[in-house]
Amino acid sequence: MIIVYFSGTGNSKFIAKRFARRMRAKAYSIEQNLNFGELFSKEDTIAVCYPVYGSCVPRIMREFVAKYKKYFNSKKLIIFCTQMMFSGDGARAFARLLPGCEKRVIYAEHFMMPNNICNFFLFPITEREKIRKSAKALRKLDRVCLDIRRGIVKKRGWNPFSTLLGKTQNITFSKTEEQGRSSFRTSESCTGCGICVKKCPAHNLEMRNGKVIQKGNCTLCYRCVNLCPVQSCTIFIHKKPERQYKGLERV
Fold it and tell me: Is 115 helix (H, G, I), strand (E, B) or coil?
């Protein structure tokens, strides 16, 4: 078994790495410069983990799946997605990328994780939320690993209500995603440090004459917003974050 993940700000990485430890599997970020075709060819099960955006698979993960589709089409699949709140059919959305794969999905689960949208007043970032949600997610992960070892098949997000909720969110997010491709901004406080350029998973940013320029390829992961040392970066919601989300590695 192998697990590959995309993680904008650390939540999906948190789940993927801990799943790998429990199942004695290898975990890799899709951002790593690796021969994934060779890695996949050696395994009979591929697990994936990604954040849900409007009940959709992030574009960067969709592009990864398209690139290695022939391998995904011949393997058993485990699908994990992380979410701030109930996303509908966020895990089943991955299966729709691979028509005919549903019989090969041996497990699918959603994990409620702390909020990483650090500049929207309705979703404050608190230590209490981080501790509570991460602990609950790990308890669920223990149950998931036990189920998989026992050969128990479960598929979260496959029921009619989840599908309906997912479709409703898809309609809204598809527009947001397209508009968001060119939504990156920096304020006057930008120092030109280049951290956002180096860390952008979609290679959307570059430095020109001391200024950060975008290339219309933002994947809306919020990494730059949470990493900027002077809180200058914003995407879509152009409000300076009061508190940035630094992930769960220290929880």
Answer: coil
